[in-house]
Design goal:
With about 100 residues, the chain is mainly alpha-helical. The two termini are about 25 Å apart. It contains 5 helices and no strands. The protein is globular and about 40 Å long. Helix content is about 50%, strand content about 0%. It has a domain of about 50 residues.
Length: about 100
C-alpha cells in the first residue's frame, strides 16, 4: 500500500533539499548527512521517498548545521505555505 497524504504533496521536492544540503556541507551521501543531523538514515530515506514530511525539528536542525535560513530551506523543497495548521494527532496534518 503506497502512502500519499496531504503532508507530502507531489509539488514538494525534498530530494532537492537533501541534495543541496549534501552539496553545501561537502558530504558524500545521505548517511553522512544523517549522522550530521543526528537522525537515523531511514528517516532521510522516508523523507526522500515522500513517506514522511520534513518535521519542524528536523528543519531547525538543518538550519543549525548549514547556517541556511529556514526560508531558504523551505524554498529548496518548494514549500511556499504562509500559514500552517496544527494537528492534534502527531505526524498527521489537520484536514483543510
Amino acid at each position: 500500500m503506497e502512502t500519499t497524504s496531504a503532508s507530502a504533496p507531489h509539488s514538494y521536492n525534498t530530494d532537492n533539499l537533501l541534495n543541496a544540503l549534501i552539496e553545501k556541507l561537502g558530504l558524500k551521501n545521505d548517511a553522512a548527512l544523517a549522522r550530521l543531523l543526528e537522525v537515523v538514515p531511514p528517516i532521510l530515506s522516508k523523507i526522500s521517498h515522500r513517506h514522511l514530511p520534513v518535521s519542524a525539528a528536523l528543519l531547525i536542525r538543518m538550519h543549525e548545521v548549514s547556517n541556511l535560513p529556514i526560508r531558504e530551506l523551505r524554498d529548496l523543497m518548494r514549500d511556499r505555505r504562509q500559514k500552517y495548521r496544527i494537528s492534534l494527532v502527531p505526524g498527521k496534518p489537520r484536514e483543510g
